[in-house]
Design brief:
The protein is of the alpha/beta class and about 425 residues long. The chain has three domains: about 5-150, 3-Layer(aba) Sandwich (Rossmann fold), CATH 3.40.50; about 175-270 and about 280-290, 2-Layer Sandwich (Transcription Regulator spoIIAA); about 290-428, Transcription Regulator spoIIAA (2-Layer Sandwich), CATH 3.30.750. The chain has 15 helices and 16 strands. It has helices spanning about 15-25, 45-55, 70-85, 95-100, 100-110, 120-130, 190-195, 205-215, 245-255, 280-290, 305-310, 315-325, 345-360, 390-400, 405-425; strands at about 5-10, 35-40, 60-65, 90-95, 110-115, 140-145, 150, 175-180, 180, 200, 220-225, 260-265, 295-300, 330-340, 365-370, 405. Helix 8 packs parallel to helix 9 (about 245-255). The protein is globular.
Protein backbone atom coordinates (compact mmCIF):
# COMPACT_ATOMS: atom_id res chain seq x y z
CA UNK A 1 0.00 0.00 0.00
CA UNK A 2 1.10 3.54 -0.72
CA UNK A 3 -0.84 5.49 1.89
CA UNK A 4 -1.80 5.40 5.55
CA UNK A 5 -5.38 4.22 4.93
CA UNK A 6 -7.89 3.04 7.54
CA UNK A 7 -11.09 1.09 7.03
CA UNK A 8 -13.67 1.49 9.79
CA UNK A 9 -16.64 -0.89 9.94
CA UNK A 10 -19.88 -0.43 11.85
CA UNK A 11 -19.87 -4.06 12.92
CA UNK A 12 -23.32 -4.72 14.39
CA UNK A 13 -24.85 -8.09 15.23
CA UNK A 14 -27.38 -7.78 12.40
CA UNK A 15 -24.74 -7.09 9.74
CA UNK A 16 -21.62 -8.90 10.91
CA UNK A 17 -21.83 -11.84 8.50
CA UNK A 18 -21.61 -9.51 5.51
CA UNK A 19 -18.56 -7.82 6.96
CA UNK A 20 -16.94 -11.15 7.84
CA UNK A 21 -16.99 -12.03 4.14
CA UNK A 22 -15.79 -8.59 3.04
CA UNK A 23 -12.84 -8.58 5.43
CA UNK A 24 -12.07 -12.14 4.39
CA UNK A 25 -11.90 -10.93 0.78
CA UNK A 26 -9.46 -8.17 1.78
CA UNK A 27 -7.23 -10.77 3.39
CA UNK A 28 -6.88 -12.64 0.09
CA UNK A 29 -4.90 -9.73 -1.37
CA UNK A 30 -1.33 -9.22 -0.21
CA UNK A 31 -1.63 -5.60 -1.32
CA UNK A 32 -3.78 -4.88 1.75
CA UNK A 33 -1.72 -6.69 4.39
CA UNK A 34 -0.89 -3.36 6.08
CA UNK A 35 -4.42 -1.96 5.89
CA UNK A 36 -5.68 -0.86 9.31
CA UNK A 37 -9.21 -2.19 9.96
CA UNK A 38 -11.31 -1.12 12.92
CA UNK A 39 -14.51 -2.83 14.12
CA UNK A 40 -17.09 -1.02 16.25
CA UNK A 41 -20.39 -2.60 17.22
CA UNK A 42 -21.87 0.28 19.21
CA UNK A 43 -22.90 3.65 17.80
CA UNK A 44 -21.43 5.67 20.68
CA UNK A 45 -18.11 3.82 20.50
CA UNK A 46 -17.92 4.32 16.74
CA UNK A 47 -18.72 8.02 17.03
CA UNK A 48 -16.17 8.61 19.78
CA UNK A 49 -13.32 6.81 18.01
CA UNK A 50 -13.77 8.23 14.51
CA UNK A 51 -12.06 11.51 15.32
CA UNK A 52 -8.98 9.76 16.69
CA UNK A 53 -8.80 7.44 13.69
CA UNK A 54 -9.11 10.34 11.23
CA UNK A 55 -6.23 12.12 12.96
CA UNK A 56 -4.06 9.00 13.00
CA UNK A 57 -4.56 8.14 9.32
CA UNK A 58 -4.20 10.15 6.14
CA UNK A 59 -7.37 8.59 4.68
CA UNK A 60 -10.32 6.99 6.44
CA UNK A 61 -13.23 5.06 4.95
CA UNK A 62 -16.29 4.18 7.03
CA UNK A 63 -18.35 1.21 5.80
CA UNK A 64 -21.97 0.76 6.89
CA UNK A 65 -24.23 -2.10 5.79
CA UNK A 66 -27.92 -2.02 6.63
CA UNK A 67 -31.39 -3.40 6.02
CA UNK A 68 -34.43 -1.28 5.23
CA UNK A 69 -35.68 -1.82 8.78
CA UNK A 70 -32.49 -0.06 9.99
CA UNK A 71 -33.03 2.96 7.75
CA UNK A 72 -33.98 5.46 10.44
CA UNK A 73 -31.20 4.47 12.82
CA UNK A 74 -28.74 4.75 9.95
CA UNK A 75 -30.10 8.16 8.95
CA UNK A 76 -29.68 9.49 12.48
CA UNK A 77 -26.10 8.43 13.09
CA UNK A 78 -24.92 9.33 9.58
CA UNK A 79 -26.22 12.88 10.12
CA UNK A 80 -24.47 12.93 13.49
CA UNK A 81 -21.20 11.77 11.93
CA UNK A 82 -21.45 14.30 9.11
CA UNK A 83 -22.04 17.13 11.56
CA UNK A 84 -19.12 16.28 13.82
CA UNK A 85 -16.31 14.64 11.86
CA UNK A 86 -13.71 15.62 9.29
CA UNK A 87 -14.49 16.08 5.61
CA UNK A 88 -11.75 13.58 4.75
CA UNK A 89 -13.95 10.75 6.01
CA UNK A 90 -15.40 8.73 3.09
CA UNK A 91 -18.79 7.20 3.93
CA UNK A 92 -19.65 4.05 1.96
CA UNK A 93 -22.97 2.19 2.20
CA UNK A 94 -23.74 -1.38 1.17
CA UNK A 95 -26.17 -4.15 1.92
CA UNK A 96 -29.83 -4.85 1.11
CA UNK A 97 -31.30 -1.37 1.49
CA UNK A 98 -28.55 0.61 -0.28
CA UNK A 99 -28.62 -1.91 -3.13
CA UNK A 100 -32.37 -1.48 -3.58
CA UNK A 101 -32.49 2.27 -2.88
CA UNK A 102 -29.11 3.72 -3.88
CA UNK A 103 -30.34 7.25 -4.65
CA UNK A 104 -32.21 7.53 -1.36
CA UNK A 105 -29.20 6.16 0.51
CA UNK A 106 -26.91 8.79 -0.99
CA UNK A 107 -29.31 11.52 0.13
CA UNK A 108 -28.83 10.38 3.72
CA UNK A 109 -25.23 11.56 3.52
CA UNK A 110 -23.20 8.71 2.07
CA UNK A 111 -20.52 9.46 -0.52
CA UNK A 112 -20.91 6.25 -2.50
CA UNK A 113 -23.13 3.17 -2.51
CA UNK A 114 -21.99 -0.36 -3.30
CA UNK A 115 -24.77 -2.24 -5.10
CA UNK A 116 -25.04 -6.01 -4.79
CA UNK A 117 -22.10 -8.21 -3.86
CA UNK A 118 -19.34 -6.23 -2.25
CA UNK A 119 -16.18 -8.34 -2.31
CA UNK A 120 -14.61 -7.25 -5.59
CA UNK A 121 -16.14 -3.77 -5.53
CA UNK A 122 -14.67 -3.07 -2.09
CA UNK A 123 -11.22 -4.28 -3.14
CA UNK A 124 -11.26 -1.92 -6.10
CA UNK A 125 -12.50 1.00 -4.01
CA UNK A 126 -9.77 0.54 -1.40
CA UNK A 127 -7.01 0.24 -3.96
CA UNK A 128 -8.15 3.33 -5.87
CA UNK A 129 -8.43 5.34 -2.65
CA UNK A 130 -4.94 4.24 -1.70
CA UNK A 131 -3.57 5.27 -5.10
CA UNK A 132 -5.52 8.57 -5.22
CA UNK A 133 -7.38 7.38 -8.31
CA UNK A 134 -10.86 8.27 -9.52
CA UNK A 135 -13.66 6.04 -8.18
CA UNK A 136 -16.35 7.07 -10.64
CA UNK A 137 -15.83 4.24 -13.16
CA UNK A 138 -16.00 1.35 -10.68
CA UNK A 139 -18.68 -1.20 -11.58
CA UNK A 140 -21.41 -1.73 -9.01
CA UNK A 141 -21.18 1.82 -7.67
CA UNK A 142 -23.72 4.63 -7.33
CA UNK A 143 -22.81 8.22 -6.47
CA UNK A 144 -23.75 11.87 -6.86
CA UNK A 145 -21.11 13.97 -8.63
CA UNK A 146 -19.93 17.48 -7.84
CA UNK A 147 -22.67 18.92 -10.05
CA UNK A 148 -25.33 17.11 -8.04
CA UNK A 149 -26.07 14.59 -10.79
CA UNK A 150 -26.85 10.99 -9.88
CA UNK A 151 -24.84 8.16 -11.47
CA UNK A 152 -25.41 4.42 -11.28
CA UNK A 153 -22.65 2.34 -12.84
CA UNK A 154 -23.24 -1.04 -14.55
CA UNK A 155 -23.66 -4.12 -12.37
CA UNK A 156 -20.56 -6.15 -11.61
CA UNK A 157 -20.42 -9.80 -12.70
CA UNK A 158 -21.34 -12.37 -10.05
CA UNK A 159 -18.38 -13.59 -8.04
CA UNK A 160 -17.08 -17.14 -7.77
CA UNK A 161 -17.64 -18.03 -4.10
CA UNK A 162 -14.57 -20.26 -4.09
CA UNK A 163 -12.33 -17.22 -4.66
CA UNK A 164 -13.19 -15.64 -1.34
CA UNK A 165 -13.56 -16.94 2.24
CA UNK A 166 -16.80 -16.64 4.24
CA UNK A 167 -15.04 -15.05 7.21
CA UNK A 168 -11.86 -13.32 8.40
CA UNK A 169 -9.02 -15.40 9.80
CA UNK A 170 -6.53 -12.60 10.46
CA UNK A 171 -9.03 -10.55 12.46
CA UNK A 172 -10.75 -13.64 13.91
CA UNK A 173 -14.20 -12.68 12.68
CA UNK A 174 -15.60 -16.19 12.40
CA UNK A 175 -19.16 -17.32 11.94
CA UNK A 176 -21.56 -19.26 9.77
CA UNK A 177 -20.39 -20.52 6.39
CA UNK A 178 -22.22 -19.24 3.33
CA UNK A 179 -22.65 -22.19 0.99
CA UNK A 180 -24.96 -20.78 -1.70
CA UNK A 181 -25.83 -17.40 -3.20
CA UNK A 182 -28.73 -16.66 -5.50
CA UNK A 183 -32.28 -17.97 -5.66
CA UNK A 184 -34.27 -18.99 -8.77
CA UNK A 185 -37.74 -18.50 -7.29
CA UNK A 186 -37.85 -14.69 -7.29
CA UNK A 187 -40.59 -14.37 -4.67
CA UNK A 188 -42.13 -10.93 -5.09
CA UNK A 189 -41.56 -9.84 -1.48
CA UNK A 190 -37.89 -10.92 -1.34
CA UNK A 191 -34.71 -9.01 -2.19
CA UNK A 192 -32.41 -12.03 -2.47
CA UNK A 193 -32.69 -12.67 -6.23
CA UNK A 194 -32.48 -8.93 -6.92
CA UNK A 195 -29.23 -8.61 -4.95
CA UNK A 196 -27.59 -12.00 -5.54
CA UNK A 197 -29.14 -13.19 -8.79
CA UNK A 198 -31.52 -15.93 -9.83
CA UNK A 199 -28.92 -18.57 -10.63
CA UNK A 200 -27.61 -20.39 -7.55
CA UNK A 201 -23.87 -20.38 -7.03
CA UNK A 202 -22.50 -22.93 -4.59
CA UNK A 203 -19.26 -22.87 -2.65
CA UNK A 204 -17.48 -26.16 -3.39
CA UNK A 205 -17.32 -28.91 -0.79
CA UNK A 206 -13.53 -28.74 -0.98
CA UNK A 207 -13.56 -25.05 -0.01
CA UNK A 208 -16.25 -25.49 2.63
CA UNK A 209 -14.17 -28.28 4.18
CA UNK A 210 -11.13 -26.02 4.18
CA UNK A 211 -13.00 -23.43 6.24
CA UNK A 212 -14.43 -26.07 8.58
CA UNK A 213 -10.86 -27.18 9.30
CA UNK A 214 -9.99 -23.59 10.17
CA UNK A 215 -12.90 -23.42 12.57
CA UNK A 216 -12.04 -26.76 14.16
CA UNK A 217 -8.47 -25.60 14.81
CA UNK A 218 -10.03 -22.90 16.97
CA UNK A 219 -12.44 -25.31 18.64
CA UNK A 220 -15.40 -23.76 16.82
CA UNK A 221 -17.20 -26.94 15.85
CA UNK A 222 -20.88 -25.95 15.84
CA UNK A 223 -21.20 -25.55 12.08
CA UNK A 224 -24.10 -23.53 10.63
CA UNK A 225 -24.70 -22.53 7.03
CA UNK A 226 -26.00 -19.42 5.27
CA UNK A 227 -28.20 -20.04 2.23
CA UNK A 228 -31.62 -18.93 1.02
CA UNK A 229 -32.80 -22.57 0.90
CA UNK A 230 -30.82 -25.13 2.85
CA UNK A 231 -31.85 -28.13 0.75
CA UNK A 232 -30.86 -26.54 -2.56
CA UNK A 233 -27.12 -27.04 -2.06
CA UNK A 234 -25.45 -28.50 -5.14
CA UNK A 235 -28.55 -28.13 -7.31
CA UNK A 236 -27.75 -26.73 -10.75
CA UNK A 237 -31.00 -24.81 -11.05
CA UNK A 238 -31.77 -24.48 -7.33
CA UNK A 239 -35.14 -26.19 -7.85
CA UNK A 240 -34.36 -29.87 -8.16
CA UNK A 241 -32.85 -31.32 -4.98
CA UNK A 242 -29.43 -32.94 -5.41
CA UNK A 243 -29.46 -35.52 -2.64
CA UNK A 244 -26.03 -36.98 -3.43
CA UNK A 245 -24.29 -33.60 -3.35
CA UNK A 246 -26.10 -32.55 -0.18
CA UNK A 247 -25.09 -35.79 1.53
CA UNK A 248 -21.51 -35.44 0.38
CA UNK A 249 -21.40 -31.98 1.96
CA UNK A 250 -22.77 -33.20 5.28
CA UNK A 251 -20.60 -36.30 5.30
CA UNK A 252 -17.44 -34.29 4.59
CA UNK A 253 -18.16 -31.73 7.30
CA UNK A 254 -19.08 -34.35 9.88
CA UNK A 255 -15.87 -36.26 9.24
CA UNK A 256 -13.84 -33.12 9.98
CA UNK A 257 -15.61 -32.06 13.17
CA UNK A 258 -15.81 -35.48 14.84
CA UNK A 259 -15.97 -36.50 17.63
CA UNK A 260 -17.73 -33.56 19.32
CA UNK A 261 -18.69 -31.21 16.50
CA UNK A 262 -22.27 -30.51 15.45
CA UNK A 263 -23.94 -29.61 12.15
CA UNK A 264 -27.06 -27.44 11.88
CA UNK A 265 -28.87 -27.35 8.54
CA UNK A 266 -32.38 -26.15 7.79
CA UNK A 267 -32.67 -24.34 11.11
CA UNK A 268 -31.38 -20.89 12.11
CA UNK A 269 -30.01 -18.95 10.22
CA UNK A 270 -31.44 -20.58 7.09
CA UNK A 271 -34.80 -22.10 6.26
CA UNK A 272 -36.12 -24.67 3.80
CA UNK A 273 -38.83 -24.59 1.15
CA UNK A 274 -41.86 -26.83 1.80
CA UNK A 275 -41.51 -28.62 -1.54
CA UNK A 276 -37.90 -29.52 -0.70
CA UNK A 277 -38.88 -31.26 2.52
CA UNK A 278 -39.03 -34.80 1.20
CA UNK A 279 -38.24 -38.15 2.86
CA UNK A 280 -34.67 -38.09 1.50
CA UNK A 281 -33.79 -34.60 2.82
CA UNK A 282 -35.36 -35.25 6.21
CA UNK A 283 -33.39 -38.49 6.46
CA UNK A 284 -30.15 -36.57 5.83
CA UNK A 285 -30.95 -34.23 8.70
CA UNK A 286 -31.58 -37.17 11.01
CA UNK A 287 -28.40 -38.91 9.90
CA UNK A 288 -25.90 -36.03 9.92
CA UNK A 289 -27.32 -32.89 11.58
CA UNK A 290 -27.94 -31.97 15.20
CA UNK A 291 -30.80 -29.48 14.88
CA UNK A 292 -34.04 -30.61 16.47
CA UNK A 293 -36.17 -28.51 14.11
CA UNK A 294 -36.70 -27.31 10.57
CA UNK A 295 -37.77 -23.76 9.69
CA UNK A 296 -40.23 -24.14 6.82
CA UNK A 297 -41.15 -21.16 4.66
CA UNK A 298 -44.91 -21.46 4.08
CA UNK A 299 -45.63 -17.68 3.98
CA UNK A 300 -49.38 -18.04 3.37
CA UNK A 301 -52.23 -20.51 3.71
CA UNK A 302 -53.92 -19.17 0.57
CA UNK A 303 -52.95 -20.75 -2.72
CA UNK A 304 -53.99 -17.57 -4.51
CA UNK A 305 -51.55 -15.50 -2.45
CA UNK A 306 -48.78 -18.06 -2.88
CA UNK A 307 -49.26 -17.84 -6.65
CA UNK A 308 -49.33 -14.02 -6.62
CA UNK A 309 -46.10 -14.04 -4.60
CA UNK A 310 -44.49 -16.34 -7.17
CA UNK A 311 -43.72 -18.93 -4.49
CA UNK A 312 -44.01 -21.94 -6.82
CA UNK A 313 -45.20 -24.33 -4.16
CA UNK A 314 -48.64 -25.38 -2.94
CA UNK A 315 -50.51 -25.29 0.34
CA UNK A 316 -50.48 -29.07 0.19
CA UNK A 317 -46.66 -28.93 0.09
CA UNK A 318 -46.79 -27.10 3.42
CA UNK A 319 -48.96 -29.82 5.00
CA UNK A 320 -46.70 -32.56 3.62
CA UNK A 321 -43.51 -30.87 4.83
CA UNK A 322 -44.83 -30.50 8.36
CA UNK A 323 -46.08 -34.07 8.43
CA UNK A 324 -42.71 -35.43 7.27
CA UNK A 325 -40.81 -33.26 9.72
CA UNK A 326 -42.89 -34.24 12.72
CA UNK A 327 -42.93 -37.92 11.74
CA UNK A 328 -39.12 -37.85 11.79
CA UNK A 329 -39.16 -36.58 15.38
CA UNK A 330 -38.17 -33.02 14.46
CA UNK A 331 -39.98 -29.84 15.43
CA UNK A 332 -41.64 -27.88 12.63
CA UNK A 333 -41.39 -24.08 12.82
CA UNK A 334 -43.47 -22.65 10.00
CA UNK A 335 -43.00 -19.10 8.67
CA UNK A 336 -46.07 -17.05 7.75
CA UNK A 337 -46.13 -13.50 6.39
CA UNK A 338 -49.33 -11.62 7.19
CA UNK A 339 -50.81 -8.76 5.18
CA UNK A 340 -49.31 -9.71 1.83
CA UNK A 341 -50.50 -7.69 -1.20
CA UNK A 342 -53.94 -8.49 -2.65
CA UNK A 343 -54.93 -10.45 0.43
CA UNK A 344 -58.72 -10.65 0.91
CA UNK A 345 -60.87 -11.78 3.82
CA UNK A 346 -61.10 -15.21 2.21
CA UNK A 347 -57.30 -15.46 1.96
CA UNK A 348 -57.00 -14.54 5.63
CA UNK A 349 -59.55 -17.21 6.55
CA UNK A 350 -57.63 -19.76 4.46
CA UNK A 351 -54.43 -18.87 6.29
CA UNK A 352 -56.13 -19.12 9.69
CA UNK A 353 -57.43 -22.59 8.77
CA UNK A 354 -53.98 -23.78 7.65
CA UNK A 355 -52.25 -22.34 10.73
CA UNK A 356 -54.82 -23.97 13.01
CA UNK A 357 -54.40 -27.30 11.23
CA UNK A 358 -50.61 -27.18 11.48
CA UNK A 359 -50.73 -26.32 15.17
CA UNK A 360 -53.05 -29.29 15.78
CA UNK A 361 -50.51 -31.45 13.97
CA UNK A 362 -47.83 -30.22 16.38
CA UNK A 363 -46.13 -27.36 14.52
CA UNK A 364 -45.17 -23.91 15.80
CA UNK A 365 -45.89 -20.72 13.87
CA UNK A 366 -43.23 -18.08 13.20
CA UNK A 367 -45.06 -14.80 12.66
CA UNK A 368 -44.08 -11.98 10.28
CA UNK A 369 -45.81 -8.90 8.89
CA UNK A 370 -45.31 -7.98 5.23
CA UNK A 371 -42.75 -5.19 4.82
CA UNK A 372 -42.36 -3.55 1.39
CA UNK A 373 -38.69 -3.71 0.41
CA UNK A 374 -36.90 -1.70 -2.28
CA UNK A 375 -36.26 -3.14 -5.73
CA UNK A 376 -38.82 -5.92 -5.32
CA UNK A 377 -42.09 -6.35 -7.26
CA UNK A 378 -43.99 -5.59 -4.03
CA UNK A 379 -42.02 -2.45 -3.11
CA UNK A 380 -44.87 -0.05 -3.90
CA UNK A 381 -47.61 -2.00 -2.16
CA UNK A 382 -49.23 -0.93 1.15
CA UNK A 383 -47.67 -2.21 4.39
CA UNK A 384 -48.95 -5.40 5.94
CA UNK A 385 -51.87 -5.16 8.34
CA UNK A 386 -53.43 -7.95 10.39
CA UNK A 387 -57.16 -8.52 10.69
CA UNK A 388 -58.86 -8.68 14.09
CA UNK A 389 -59.41 -12.44 13.80
CA UNK A 390 -55.81 -13.09 12.86
CA UNK A 391 -54.51 -10.95 15.73
CA UNK A 392 -56.65 -12.88 18.19
CA UNK A 393 -55.45 -16.23 16.88
CA UNK A 394 -51.78 -15.20 17.02
CA UNK A 395 -52.16 -13.77 20.52
CA UNK A 396 -53.80 -17.00 21.68
CA UNK A 397 -51.11 -19.15 20.08
CA UNK A 398 -48.34 -16.94 21.47
CA UNK A 399 -49.76 -17.21 24.99
CA UNK A 400 -49.61 -21.00 24.62
CA UNK A 401 -46.03 -20.89 23.34
CA UNK A 402 -47.10 -22.18 19.93
CA UNK A 403 -46.43 -18.94 18.01
CA UNK A 404 -43.46 -16.55 18.17
CA UNK A 405 -42.12 -13.65 16.16
CA UNK A 406 -41.89 -9.87 15.80
CA UNK A 407 -45.02 -9.23 13.74
CA UNK A 408 -46.15 -6.28 15.90
CA UNK A 409 -42.86 -4.40 15.56
CA UNK A 410 -42.76 -5.27 11.86
CA UNK A 411 -46.28 -3.92 11.38
CA UNK A 412 -45.16 -0.55 12.78
CA UNK A 413 -41.93 -0.30 10.81
CA UNK A 414 -43.74 -1.40 7.63
CA UNK A 415 -45.94 1.71 7.88
CA UNK A 416 -42.88 3.97 8.12
CA UNK A 417 -41.17 2.23 5.21
CA UNK A 418 -44.23 2.44 2.96
CA UNK A 419 -44.56 6.16 3.75
CA UNK A 420 -40.88 6.67 2.94
CA UNK A 421 -41.30 5.00 -0.46
CA UNK A 422 -44.27 7.28 -1.18
CA UNK A 423 -42.73 10.56 -0.02
CA UNK A 424 -38.97 10.08 0.17
CA UNK A 425 -39.19 11.70 3.62
CA UNK A 426 -37.20 10.23 6.52
CA UNK A 427 -37.63 12.78 9.28
CA UNK A 428 -40.11 11.74 11.95
Amino acid sequence: MKSNLALVLYYTKANKYSFNALVGAIETKKYFENLSIYFYGKEEELFNELGRICQKHDKTMLGISFFTTQLWDTYNYVRKIRDNHCDRLLLVAGGPHPTGDPKGTLKIGFDIVVKGEGEETLLEILEKIDRDEDLSNIKGLAFIDEKGEYHENPRRSWIDLDKYPPFSVKHEKFGNIEITRGCPYACYFCQTPQILGGRPRHRSIEKISEYVYILKERNLTDIRFITSNAFSYGSIDGKKVDISCLEELLKSVKKIILPKGRIFLGSFPSEVRPDHVIPETVELIKKYAHNDNLIIGAQSGSQKILDICHRNHTVNDVYNSVQLTLKAGLKANVDFIFGLPNETDKDIKDTIIVMSDLVKMGARVHTHTFIPLPHTPFSKYPPGHLSKDLRKLIDDLTAKGIAYGDWKAQENIAKKIAKYFRTGELKV
